[in-house]
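Field log, afternoon session.

UNIT: design team B
ACTIVITY: writing a sequence onto a fixed backbone
BACKBONE:
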């Protein structure tokens, strides 16, 4: 009997929305027969010994949280040899009105993603919308939200998140993938690169906060 593959879902959350998405992803992977757990990006989320890794972060001013960016730097050697997926949680779907729709149309990837894509070759990166609440902003920030036509609410599309998670589970459980990557902790022989942190840009200041 085969041992189920193990998956680490590491995340950096600002107000809790990303944490809940990471937990949802891990639970759905477990229902698909994988051994998955969600951990805040840091020592508890060490990817050593895991067959695949998913890393997600809240987005603040089009940047990943420093903890998530630092996680990519610290574990670059391992992540480059594992099946890797990335996700970002922002506010795109909360933007309405003429200005908001214009901003949403140009809502691109966080600044860290191109470097991560070059250095780590993730299988995919997805942008999901999260929860937007008045207490997430100072008074001036709430005025800006109103001016650009922003809305408050829970904009997480659980169907889309679930479908993406299912595609990951399918890829990790197909016989072809199992033969290629082996069981938990085995490196993917097809991704034998040795990236350095410089390929991911400057290491973030650990004292910074989103």
């Amino acid at each position: 009997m085969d041992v189920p593959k193990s998956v680490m879902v590491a995340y950096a959350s600002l107000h809790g929305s990303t944490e809940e998405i990471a937990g949802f992803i891990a639970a759905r992977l477990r229902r698909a027969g994988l051994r998955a757990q969600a951990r805040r990006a840091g020592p508890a989320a060490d990817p050593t010994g895991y067959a695949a890794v998913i890393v997600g972060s809240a987005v603040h001013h089009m940047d990943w949280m420093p903890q998530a960016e630092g996680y990519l730097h610290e574990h670059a050697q391992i992540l480059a040899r594992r099946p890797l997926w990335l996700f970002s949680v922002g506010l795109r779907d909360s933007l309405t009105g003429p200005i908001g729709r214009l901003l949403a149309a140009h809502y691109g990837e966080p600044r860290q993603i191109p470097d991560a894509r070059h250095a780590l070759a993730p299988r995919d990166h997805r942008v999901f919308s999260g929860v937007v609440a008045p207490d997430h902003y100072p008074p001036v920030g709430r005025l800006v939200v109103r001016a650009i036509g922003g809305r408050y609410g829970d904009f997480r599309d659980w169907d889309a998140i679930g479908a993406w998670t299912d595609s990951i589970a399918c890829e990790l459980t197909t016989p072809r993938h199992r033969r290629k990557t082996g069981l938990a902790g085995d490196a993917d022989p097809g991704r034998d690169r040795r990236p350095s942190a410089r390929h991911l840009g400057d290491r973030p200041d650990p004292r910074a906060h989103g």
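LOG NOTE: The chain has one domain: 6-182.
NEXT ACTIVITY: expression trials, pending approval
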